Amino acid sequence: MQIKFLDDFILQSHTDNLKTKGLYPEQLFDLKVKVSFGQGNTAQIPWISILGPGMSTSNGYYPVYLYYKEQNILVLAYGISETVEYEDPWSFEILSKSTKASDLFEKKLRYRDSYIYKTYMPQIIENEVTYASMDKSINKDEMYEDLVSLVETYKNCLDIEVKDESSSISKGLFYMEQQLEDFIIENWDETEFGKKYDLIKEEGEIISQQYRTDIGPIDILAKDKITGDYVVIELKKNQTSDDTVGQIARYMGWIQEHLNNQNVRGVIVCGKYDERLNYAQKMIPNIEVFLYEVNFSLREYKK
Fold first, then answer.
1. Residues 65, 9 contacting (CB under 8 angstroms)
2. For the residues 46-50, what does the mean pLDDT come to?
3. Which of 181, 210, 231, 250 can bridge 83 by disulfide, Cβ–Cβ 3.0-4.6 Å?
4. In degrees rounded to 5, what are phi and psi of residue 236?
């Protein structure tokens, strides 16, 4: 059965097991797959996202399964990241004819800005999962065709975006910057950050990445394991050192005032340490600088 991973996903959603590595396909239809049941605590709405080049669950648009456990409704959706507002997701025709997830439930739940493609009601009997749609049973071949159809629509949208020379995907900048941010989050416990700082979670989901403020999103907001003080982590992207220092100082000031943390610290992550950063760090001692390295290798593919 080509959609067996979905049965496994539904079954695991009703356990406390948050592990996903090696349990689910890493790719579907030549697209990256991400699965989450929560971080630290079980999420109320576990998900499976299928991501095109340059897309991440926190910043982009993508086909996604959202399982609203309390309501026992599995939504196959035109997914839209809720952390960062992605410009021009999907197509106007799709979004104008589709219903938002927020219209499906009376209570305010997460991922409400995604649009519904199909809904299913899972039923578990003796560790076997069956599904119904529109009050009628639906077989898994039909569900697989639903997914194939949505992915084809998605690839068409991506193709249009890549052909647009002004798009972030075609420029490649978005992809590399976001991948570094995602890598830090996904490998947090293995980084120097993970030894000293904790990510912030809400309802079992990480909210540290692209943390929302009314002056813009912070790349990563963490908390010191010992003192509990906030730590603002900013990636030095396609901008000057002066811009980066000004930006992180602004976010630190916001945290100090709005989250009442007088000892907030800052961390700048960059690929190269320059003289301007050196001078700025001398005057702002509560800002640290970390350098990242990228190891790149090629090997011949042989069957």
1. yes
2. 96
3. 210
4. -80, 100
Last residue within a domain, chosen from 136, 167, 198: 167
Question: 142-188, pLDDT tens digit by residue?
Answer: 999 999 999 999 988 887 665 555 555 555 444 555 677 888 888 89
Q: Are 47 and 184 contained in the same domain? A: no
The proportion of the chain whose per-residue pLDDT surpasses 90, expressed as a percent, equals 45
For range 191-208, the mean pLDDT: 88
- For the chain, give percent helix, strand, coil, nearest 5: 30, 30, 40
- The residue behind tokens 């009376």 is 106
pLDDT value at residue 257: 94
Which ranges in 135-214 belong to alpha helices (H)? 140-163, 168-171, 173-186, 192-196
Both tokens assigned to 94: 């799709």
Q: Are 221 and 200 in contact (CB under 8 A)?
A: yes
Q: Token pair of 22, please?
A: 């090696």
Digit-coded pLDDT (tens) for 230-288:
999 998 766 667 778 888 999 999 999 999 999 999 988 877 666 777 787 778 878 88
One DSSP character per residue, 247-274 reads: HHHHHHHHHHHHS--TT-EEEEEESS--
Q: What would the two tokens of residue 212 be?
A: 């929302």
Among 257, 254, 266, smallest CA distance to 290 is for 266
Q: What are phi and psi of 128, to 5 degrees?
A: -115, 140
Torsion sign over Cα 115, 31, 57, 48 = positive
* Residues 96 and 177 reside in one and the same domain: no
Do 115 and 185 have their domain in common? no
Give the count of domains, the chain: 2
Among 128, 145, 122, 132, which residue's Cα sits nearest to residue 68?
Answer: 122
From the number of C-beta atoms within 10 Å of its C-beta (0-12, 13-18, 19+), residue 291 rates as exposed
Q: Which residues, 6 or more positions from 49, have their beta carbon under 8 angstroms from its beta carbon?
A: 33, 34, 35, 57, 62, 63, 64, 79
